[in-house]
Every structure is written in structure tokens, then in C-alpha cells.
UniProtKB/TrEMBL annotation:
This is DoxX family protein. The keyword Membrane applies. Keywords: Membrane, Transmembrane, Transmembrane helix. It is a multi-pass membrane protein. It is found in: Membrane. GO terms for cellular component: membrane. It comes from Roseomonas acroporae.
């Protein structure tokens, strides 16, 4: 049995922090998005989606949708880093992707 609630809270906390970082946009984040070929507005979109996924993960009846949204965002991160051949930076997003998959798999559908 997978302890869904603590895992969902952990993933939500990480996504809230990551979303805040993307929305605040310090120089290194802006440079990373530009280096990967994304327009300036993309970091705002990603940050907003990360916050939305985090909020959904905290709501038991929406947890499955939050896990799916988190997984989609993280798939984009993994694809972007793989396209850039940043292999040594893939560990963290891949672990988070697995965590999102576990939460989504262990959440009853439709949620009660």
C-alpha cells in the first residue's frame, strides 16, 4: 500500500517551491529558459501549472488530476533536459515524475 497523502503533500511542496521560483524568475531561471529555446512567458506558464498541480494535489477529491498535471509538467522538464543532453540533471525531475506516477496510481478514480 502506497501512503498517498504524505507523498502527495511532499510533491505539492516541491511544486509550490518550483512554481514560486519560476514565477519570481531570478536571472538563472530566465537564462535557463532562454538557453532551452523557450519564450519569456513560458516560465510563467510552467510556474502557474506547477502551482495548480500543487493545489490539486492537496485536495483529496482532485488529487488524481493534480498527479496527472504534475506528471505532464515533469515530462516536459525531462524532455527539455534530454533534448539539451543535460543527462546529469535528469535525476531530480525523473524522481519527481515517478512520485507523481505513484500518487496518480494509488489515488482512487474517480476520487471519493
Amino acid at each position: 500500500m502506497v501512503p498517498v497523502t504524505p507523498l502527495a503533500w511532499l510533491l505539492a511542496a516541491v511544486l509550490l517551491l518550483a512554481g514560486a521560483l519560476n514565477l519570481r524568475g531570478p536571472a538563472f531561471v530566465r537564462e535557463e529558459f532562454a538557453r532551452l529555446g523557450f519564450p519569456a512567458w513560458a516560465r510563467h506558464a510552467v510556474g502557474g501549472l506547477e502551482w495548480l498541480a500543487a493545489i490539486l494535489l492537496l485536495l483529496p477529491s482532485w488529487r488524481g488530476a493534480g498527479a496527472v498535471l504534475a506528471a505532464l509538467v515533469l515530462l516536459g522538464v525531462v524532455a527539455s533536459l534530454a533534448r539539451d543532453a543535460a543527462w546529469m540533471r535528469l535525476e531530480y525531475p525523473v524522481v519527481l515524475l515517478v512520485l507523481a506516477a505513484l500518487v496518480g496510481w494509488a489515488t482512487p478514480w474517480p476520487a471519493p
